[in-house]
Amino acid sequence: MTAFSLPPPLPERAGGSGEEARAGSTRRRVLTGAGVAASSLVLGVAASGRQPASADARLAAEVHAEFLHGWRGYQAAAWGYDEVRPLSGTPHDFFAPGRTFGLSIVEALDTLFLMEENLEAARCCDWIEHHLDPVQDASVQVFEAVIRLVGGVLAGYQATGRRPLLQRARELGDRLLPAFTASPTGLPYTHVNLRTGAVHGDVATLAEIGSNAMEFGLLSRLTGDPRYYEASVRAYRAAVSRRSALDLLGTSLHVETGRWADTTAVAPNAPVDSFYEYLYMAGAQFRDRTLGSWYRTLNAAVLRHQAVRVGGRLWFRTVDFRSGRPSGVGTCQQQLGSFYAGLLARSGTPEQGADYFDSWTAVLDRHPVLPESVDCATLAPVDRGGLLRPEYANAAFDLWRATGLDRYRQAAYRWFTAMRERQRVPGGYTTLGDVTAPPGSPNAYGDLTPGYWFAENLKYLWLMFSATPRFDYRAGLLSTEGKALVGLRQRWV
Ligand code: DMJ
After folding, report:
1. CATH of the domain at 108
2. Which of 80, 245, 363, 367 is 20 to 30 Å apart from 222, CA to CA?
3. Ligand 1: which atom is nearest the Cα of residue 389?
4. What's the number of domains the chain is made of?
5. Which of 205, 214, 336 to mutate for ligand 1's pocket (most ligand atoms within 8 Å of CB)?
6. Cα–Cα distance between 390 and 402 in angstroms, integer?
7. Intra-chain end-to-end CA distance of the chain, in Å
């Protein structure tokens, strides 16, 4: 397989001159196609997993049963479609109206493998091999297609070794690449038509810019084709080089000019959340010191300028990225940001990770399940929706792996029982319109099992309680969509 090179260190900020020339002269490292680091350079960040303390067969069985309940609901009402609406028993197209990618099948595949549901996982592989069309006339959001489809198919390939899956992931990657290569700055357009290659969406958020390095890096590693990872790193470089003197980033960038489209630093909330996650995680995955260095620089700035104590609890305020002064949106905090508690623990600041996790546990103390967003001064909901988000369980899993403390498993189990109590319906699991509305009231329910529910929510619980031999707890790495991109242990066909 061909070798490909990894990128040079931290770029200058915007306005610095000669960045590319300097970058070209710095030391490069090489990964072989088989993924062996050929350089002796050592990464400053590393996977921080532990072996599982002990299995709890009873709790693992509960988790397994609930996953299958949701899975059967999808199979019965929406097999072959992207998602299921479990109350109405109808399918939902996630990417484009009238187009399906069998999203929930792709999302569920490696979870089924980890749960030793071999026949179900094989059915998923069969569907992907025979029905997933990567050249549909559909304009898809690149970020979602990468983390959900490319990541899901790659995880399936790693679990099974079935070569057509790798081929399918490669086809998808090739069809998504124009979003990066058509851009004059390297910042990806947000959408691409898989058939025509036409791109659109010229303002990209940080999550859309960076949340591809794990999947594209793995695709480069498995195929020996460097283009995917190089596109990811170029996009990261384009964003990081535009950081402010405070080492803070705004929220979104104009793809064609490279100018900031706003001035607010909102980390770790959406829509920048996984930009930071992937700097750290891809840095660990590929032993890429450049990404690790960017993560440390940017994350230190977030902790320095955005961390704030409200009522004794740790939260992150929105600030102007140039001045560091608090900006606009007051005290609103998104549940999506709660993953960051785990990332902080993994990346060397476990005290802040624990504190931030406890802040979200305080929110869970107040509500039946976590609302989409809260006012951190009062913990009252701002957005009352309950979208079956996995981020709190993701954080519990990461904190448990990083610290070994059982309290995180207990917190995750409590979160699981709340979800089971409120969001389980005969057709599976559903979103809520208002987490505070009593069950049965008009606003209580939404009608969707999001694809990510199959990839994430119960996988974290299963990994915590099953001690499955199919996952390497020490070295395994999960993507932002919960795909086990590193550490799936057993191949079977
Ligand atoms: C998932 O699609 C991914 O975790 C993504 O990074 C943002 N969050 C959703 C689930 O809430």
Report:
1. 1.50.10.10
2. 80
3. 11
4. 1
5. 336
6. 18
7. 24
